[in-house]
Amino acid sequence: MRKTIHSLIFLFLFVAFAVSSVSTVSSVTGEQKSSVMITGYQVNPEVPMCNDLGTVTVTVKNMEPKSVNINEVQMLSQGIKVLSDSYFNPGSLGPGGALSLTFTIKATCPDGIYYPKVIVNGEGAQSIRYSFPVTVDSSPLTIGVKDVPEDIFRGERAKIELVVGNSRPNNVTAVKIVTEDKDVMPSEVFLGTLSADDSEVATFYFTPQVKGDCVLNFKLQFKNGDNYHYTDLSVPLNVTESKKRAELILTGIEVESMPGMNVYKITGDINNAGLEAANSVVMKVGDAEGIEAMQPYKAYFVGLLNADDFSSFELNVKVEGNETQVPLIIEYKDEDGILSSEHEYISIESTQKIVSTGELPVPMIAVVIVIAIVVIGMIAYSWKKR
């Protein structure tokens, strides 16, 4: 009897365990055979950098031959911050229908791999969970000097090549290099999209106007998704004087006062003491307070000046107030067509001359009249005495 009871208890426990197992398998099988599934996801940017804003788009698809209502879709994550709210009652999916939902995220976390989770709650208490990896990598683009001339001369164009490399695991867009240095052309080079592990070369031309040490500053800009990122590059250079370039100097300067209020004529010679020709040489009066270029020679076109050549010039200027220095600008182009300019200052108080107009000045006329009166008086007195 006791064995029978034990056998019944054992049989009861076995049946209960079997029923529980079947129930569990049925539950798991029912979850795997849910009528909705996550069939894909897309992260933009593909690999966020730290503090980048991005999006995650998931596709929910109805796998059943009947319509299914979606009650809620939400996204949860540890590490990556989810900025979007859950989608409540996003709609009904027909047989084979799909729905794409986008969540906004922010990578407020250190570099690493994270696994956000999407939860879809359907009708009839159906629920699915879908995890996917998101890699956060803050590696920047690199920028450096590829080639720069060993010698850089004042007034001569130097070619500078910079290289940009993408060591990131994803493509970046809107890549460009900009500079605010007025002696560098162009001011911006656009490289566009740069693939992972790829590089591009940007070419700039530097035409320094002064000698000595200088630093060229460049800024690399690119987009990771919709996020802008920047990297700075400083290039130190030493500018020296070339012995081969054109060298323009002024000689024989004369300043003459002309009829009119404070109008002067400046004449002289411009000489090329360098070893290269100067093209399209132009002399003109510089801008300064109280200084105004006048007709007929506001500017004087000299043209080509070969090495050891010279030419005369003439300029007219009006000087107001107490100004005693007139700025002159010499502009010319080298053999590459690069425009250069030099500045000279001419004094108008120590070199000025009086131009004869064919008429005697008023003081001199008065002296002549006085002398004439004295002579006439002396002649009249001698006649009277006789």
In short:
This protein is mostly beta strands and 386 residues long.
Describe the structure.
The longest helix has 31 residues, at 2-32. By secondary structure, the chain is mainly β. A hairpin with an 8-residue loop joins strand 1 and strand 2. Residues 1-6, 8-33 and 350-362 have low confidence and may be disordered. The radius of gyration is 45 Å and the shape is elongated. The chain has helices at 2-32, 362-385; strands spanning 36-44, 53-62, 68-76, 81-82, 87-93, 98-106, 112-114, 117-122, 127-131, 134-136, 142-147, 152-153, 158-165, 172-178, 184-185, 188-194, 199-206, 212-224, 227-240, 248-258, 263-272, 278-285, 291-293, 299-305, 310-319, 325-333, 339-347, 352-354. It has a 5-stranded mixed β-sheet, with no helix packed on it. It has 3 domains: 34-136, Immunoglobulin-like (Sandwich); 142-240, Immunoglobulins (Immunoglobulin-like), CATH 2.60.40.10; 248-354, Gamma-adaptin ear (GAE) domain (Immunoglobulin-like), CATH 2.60.40.
Would you spell out the secondary-structure blueprint of this structure?
Elements: H1 2-32, E1 36-44, E2 53-62, E3 68-76, E4 81-82, E5 87-93, E6 98-106, E7 112-114, E8 117-122, E9 127-131, E10 134-136, E11 142-147, E12 152-153, E13 158-165, E14 172-178, E15 184-185, E16 188-194, E17 199-206, E18 212-224, E19 227-240, E20 248-258, E21 263-272, E22 278-285, E23 291-293, E24 299-305, E25 310-319, E26 325-333, E27 339-347, E28 352-354, H2 362-385
